Amino acid sequence: GCPKHTRLVELGPGRGTLMVDALRALKRVRGFCEQIEVVLVEASPTLREIQKARLKDCEAGIRWTTHFDLSDGPLLLVANEFFDALPIRQYVKTDRGWCERMVVLKDGTLNFALAPQITPAAAIPTSRAGAPDGGVYEVSPAATALVAEIARIIAARGGAALLLDYGYGRVGFGETLQALRARRPESLLTEPGESDLSAHVDFMALTEAARSQGVSVSGPKGQGAFLDALGINIRAKKLAEANPNETDKIKDAVDRLTGPERMGTLFQAMALSSSAAPPLPGF
Asked: pTM higher than 0.90, yes or no?
């Protein structure tokens, strides 16, 4: 019950699996679930219904919203594979300078093209100054603005945020925008709206946005190392001992989450916390 009005927030909760697991674990903290409000930020009506069914036995009060619009009370937030789905802008280095990549309609077909005008130098970070011709700079104003808002609330009200996504923590000049349909690569401009579009998260940009609001930033750290520091292998051993027929399945699940050739290094973990908070586990 202290501090008051604490909210547990998940951005893009998918089918509700992560929140179900989190609330089951949080039952070990006496009175916690009864004292918080769970807020699920979900735009899809279909997924909302799935989440409601999965969380029907939740002891905490749950509220759904289509946008992150919280301003009062401490914030405990998790976002797993959320920021990669936010829109990006792309700039391509040419012999004329940086030009934004646009989508044009030509002969009834969507195509990519470069803007005829040069992008003002002030729009490109100095860290991209050494890009070769053809190099791509991707930026997500929506992502940096949202992280800055989350950090502002944490700095003012307290709390923490955990962000997990595939992305990079250093300067790169490659294009990462991709389309997947039925888990298979698809042409980006084929049948718009029928494929899942995503791009690797620029954790450097998110870090700068968060620190501008005065919070502490932990990471980014490879998901494999992060989960190992939290004891995933100890947890897996106990699960295997209790479920000997599931040993191979558990081992494969751990490898999928932590293996360097799978999600262990491609996925990154980053956390935000108030400057007065103690070091966060896993980092």
From this structure: yes
